[in-house]
Design brief:
The protein has a 7-stranded parallel beta sheet, sandwiched between helices. By secondary structure, it is an alpha/beta fold. The chain is elongated and about 90 Å long.
């Protein structure tokens, strides 16, 4: 036994709150009050602060355990008392100071996004929510410790202590993960899938089935209106009318073609893709000047702010086709149906590209890909460059790409050293270009080639700029110069910053033109630079911008 009366080699967890753990927890609580990419309300702030406090507490407890486990010398009791008292005073003053500044920090983010300032923060709400989250996390930690101790003691009867500790720890982790992933998380996903499936089936009364024989969802269509799902019916029902486009552009126009295959159109992705292709051929999609292959978000949603600008720029001489693969929002779809989303995107790409590539080059439309958020990542993964290198399509516009998107990540990591991470410059800019709300696609060392990839991203978008590495390393986008919509008060702190960015991804909200909400005017500039439509000067583009922003 050692000086504390503990058996060497046995991992013990005490049954009371750790003083060092509480000190670390209060420090992390204070740091969690600093701003991140998006403004947050008091409830979300309380959750973040509670998780931050729990993370700090765990680090404190593990630090004390490691110190004792390695038999490192401890200061005398009186010195320990003085040090703890000094640390407690420091942490208390830090918490009070940071709580005092929390409102100003949140307003610094809101000011960048043109949002109204908040009069103040509800400190009681933040404190109560944080304490509740912390106590819940602490209780789960104690439960894990009890399970570990129970298993390791049982194993001590047949194996050495150090072996029982390791095996007991692994078994405890496995049991916890089995319960969380196999029971709780699965139940949550099943419930979410059922509720979103029911929501998807709702038919909104203001969106009646089309009667035009050449419209998708009409009685003559190969795709039934009832199988479209809520997002599909919205996408088709909000197609700009020919007269509306003509009145804005001041020239004769056509009605854009939109084709949407809902999740219930067929069981297999290949079958849905085949139906979408047949419908696209039936309605004359390949006879238009421009064809856009759209990959939707998790729910099957296609942002109208992304599609209307290009439809107006093309004076309606455009067709777009997309296919649903999930009912779930993108974060849940990424976890539960990530591989299925890629499979769905590949099936549609292969069907459409296969038909397009067999057409005579002078007779086929220009082909572009589009995707937002999870749709951008799945669109990126829908094709292999080796399959299209002999006959490439014309390009892609991907907005708000998730940090896991392959091409985005590769181009960002290989950017020119003088360019920031939030607006990279890749090689000579002849293939890949990046833009934000200030533009960027019109600038390049070399001319933009025949095959073009454009990324539209905001520096304040947590979906794009979250990184697991922020747990232990400051992200490059936080260094100077920063993006125009990132607060100067944002600072990097180990562990805490990752929690803040994760909360921004899941619960962050921002106005259009910031965060993950892409503005119609920025889409207009991106499409205009990407496809270079004829007959649009600066004044006509600005008139279109005014119309789209007013309509939005």
């Amino acid at each position: 036994m050692n000086s504390q009366g503990e058996t060497p080699g046995r991992w013990r967890f005490r049954g009371y709150f750790s003083t060092i753990g509480l000190l670390f927890g209060s420090l992390f609580f204070a740091l969690s009050l600093t701003p991140s990419l998006l403004p947050r309300d008091d409830l979300i702030q309380g959750v973040i602060s509670g998780l931050g406090m729990a993370a700090g507490y765990l680090i404190g407890v593990l630090s004390v355990w490691l110190w004792r486990y390695l038999y490192l010398p401890s200061p005398p009791k009186r010195v320990q008392y003085v040090l703890k008292l000094a640390a407690a005073v420091f942490c208390t003053l830090l918490v009070i100071s940071f709580l005092w500044q929390a409102g100003r920090w949140q307003n610094s983010v809101r000011a960048l996004m043109g949002m109204e300032e908040l009069a103040g923060t509800r400190l009681v709400v933040i404190g109560l929510v944080a304490m509740l989250v912390f106590l819940l996390a602490w209780a789960l930690g104690k439960l894990f410790a009890l399970l570990f101790r129970f298993l390791s003691r049982k194993l001590e009867r047949v194996v050495p202590v150090h072996v029982s500790n390791v095996v007991g720890l692994l078994l405890a982790f496995w049991l916890f993960w089995a319960v969380v992933d196999g029971v709780l998380f699965s139940f949550f996903l099943r419930s979410a899938d059922l509720s979103h499936q029911q929501l998807d089936a709702l038919i909104e009364p203001e969106l009646p089935a089309p009667t035009d024989p050449l419209a998708t969802g009409s009685p003559d269509s190969l795709l039934d209106w009832d199988t479209m799902g809520r997002q599909g019916r919205r996408f088709l029902g909000k197609t700009p009318e020919m007269a509306d486009i003509a009145s804005v552009v001041g020239e004769p126009a056509q009605k854009p073609i939109r084709v949407y295959a809902g999740l219930n159109a067929a069981d297999e992705p290949e079958d849905r893709a085949a139906l979408a292709l047949e419908e696209l051929i039936r309605v004359g999609g390949f006879e238009r000047e421009l064809l856009v292959l759209v990959t939707p978000t998790g729910t099957g949603w296609v942002d109208p702010a992304a599609m209307e600008p290009v439809e107006y720029l093309m004076r309606g001489d455009i067709a777009s086709v997309t296919m649903q693969y999930s009912y779930l929002p993108s974060p849940l779809a990424l976890v539960e149906e990530g591989a299925y989303g890629v499979e769905n995107a590949r099936a549609l790409f292969q069907a459409v590209y296969g038909y397009w590539s067999e057409m005579a080059p002078e007779e086929r439309p220009r082909l572009f890909l589009f995707g937002l958020s999870l749709g951008a990542m799945n669109s990126d993964r829908s094709f292999d460059f080796y399959d299209v290198i002999n006959d490439p399509f014309d390009g892609a516009l991907w907005s708000g790409p998730p940090f896991r998107a392959d091409t985005w990540r590769s181009a960002t990591e290989q950017r020119r050293p003088e360019s920031p991470e939030w607006l990279p410059r890749f090689r000579d800019d002849s293939v890949i270009r990046f833009a934000n709300q200030l533009g960027g696609l019109d600038e390049g060392r070399a001319d933009w080639g025949g095959f073009r990839i454009a990324f539209l991203q905001y520096a304040s978008d947590p979906i794009t700029f979250f990184s697991p590495d922020s747990f232990f390393r400051e992200p490059d986008w936080m260094r100077e110069p920063r993006g125009p919509d990132v607060s100067d008060d944002l600072r990097w702190f180990p562990v805490v910053t990752m929690l803040q960015l994760a909360a921004d991804m899941g619960a962050g909200r921002s106005p259009r033109g910031y965060g993950h909400e892409y503005a119609v005017g920025d889409y207009l500039d991106a499409w205009h630079a990407l496809i270079e439509p004829e007959g649009w000067d600066r004044d006509s583009v600005e008139r279109l911008r005014d119309h789209l922003e007013q309509s939005e």
